[in-house]
Specification:
The chain has 9 helices and 14 strands. The protein is an alpha/beta fold. The protein binds flavin mononucleotide. Flavin mononucleotide binds next to strand 6 and helix 8.
């Protein structure tokens, strides 16, 4: 199916992301780009779209170190959303607003905080991502019904497209229910965040972190399968898939079988920027064959 090294294929893979139409939509997932400068760098290095680090109302230092454990097939992180806070973020956006496709990830402790974040950021942002999935904050994730209510309340105050990023801590059926009940209110979903795990090497007292990278790919597929059983195509419900997509074969599968666009952070951290072209190759193959 694949030649050993990526070669150009004559296929175009288009997908809409807010106001943008992406050609071979391979993106950088939230986590690395914690400054506007890094957003530009990620784009220059080959990410066709870039999701910002999750930004919160107030600056956060994150969890005590060590907060990253590296393995061959995985990363465990307990970063705890370190970020400069929305005020400083907006200051940077004012001086250099990206014109390439990008997504603003945000996290609020309450519905009101989310609403405030959206009101402040709306003049600069084309697409929002609500981080309903971080395992590394002091707050538990909302249960499914609470999440649905919160998503409806938050999205009601903006006309900008909103993606919601969901956790593998919810069951696939739970995430499917969120998709069904909130479909009217959202642009699409981001599946999945890291898989919660405890590791004694982590610096936080609870030893709590999240696994990403190759080993969570089967988990990503479980969630894609369930949500796509009710929304079969990207037109029915746009999905940005992230979770162990680290080869052209995996990008091919995610596009072909689950009609989703692909994104990665662990692939980028482990393989470097060549990951974007590798995944683009898989996507193009999938589009060529459809
Ligand atoms: C170091 C690191 C930091 C992360 N920070 C965030 C974050 O700020 N917001 C978020 O929604 N997800 C964050 N994530 C989760 C990723 O965006 C992604 O959902 C997860 O790692 C699975 O994709 P992957 O296997 O391609 O890395 C982070 C992941 C890593 C490894």
């Amino acid at each position: 199916m694949f030649s050993s090294s990526p070669s150009p294929v004559n296929a175009e893979c288009h997908a809409k992301l807010g106001k943008w139409t992406l050609n071979t939509p391979v993106g950088l997932s939230s986590g690395w780009a914690d400054s506007i400068e890094k957003m530009f760098i990620a784009h220059k290095l080959g990410a066709r779209f870039v999701t910002s680090k999750t930004i919160t109302l107030h600056p956060r230092r994150g969890n005590p170190r060590p907060r990253i454990i590296r393995g061959e097939q995985f990363l465990i992180n307990s970063m705890g959303l370190p970020n400069p806070g929305v005020k400083s973020w907006i200051h940077s956006l004012r001086s250099s607003l990206p014109t390439f496709p990008w997504i603003q990830s945000i996290f609020g402790h309450t519905t009101e905080e989310y609403i405030l974040l959206i009101e402040l950021l709306e003049p600069f942002v084309e697409v929002f991502e609500l981080n309903f999935s971080c395992p590394n904050t002091e707050h538990d994730l909302p249960d499914i019904e609470t999440a649905i209510t919160q998503i409806r309340d938050i999205t009601s105050i903006t006309n900008k497209p909103v993606f919601v990023k969901l956790s593998p801590s919810n069951t696939p059926k739970g995430n499917r229910r969120i998709a069904e009940k909130a479909r009217e209110n959202i642009e699409g979903l981001v599946l999945i965040n890291t898989v919660p795990i405890k590791h004694r090497g982590l610096g936080n007292p609870a030893k709590q972190g999240g696994v990403s990278g190759s080993v969570i790919f089967p988990e990503l597929l479980r969630h894609l399968r369930e949500v796509r059983s009710v929304f079969p195509t990207y037109d029915d419900l746009p999905i940005i898939a992230t979770g162990g997509i680290n080869s052209p074969q995996r990008a091919f599968l995610v596009k072909k079988q689950y009609d989703s666009i692909v994104s990665t952070i662990t692939g980028f951290l482990q393989e470097g920027p060549r990951i974007f072209n590798l995944l683009a190759h898989g996507l193009k193959q999938a589009c060529k064959k459809s």
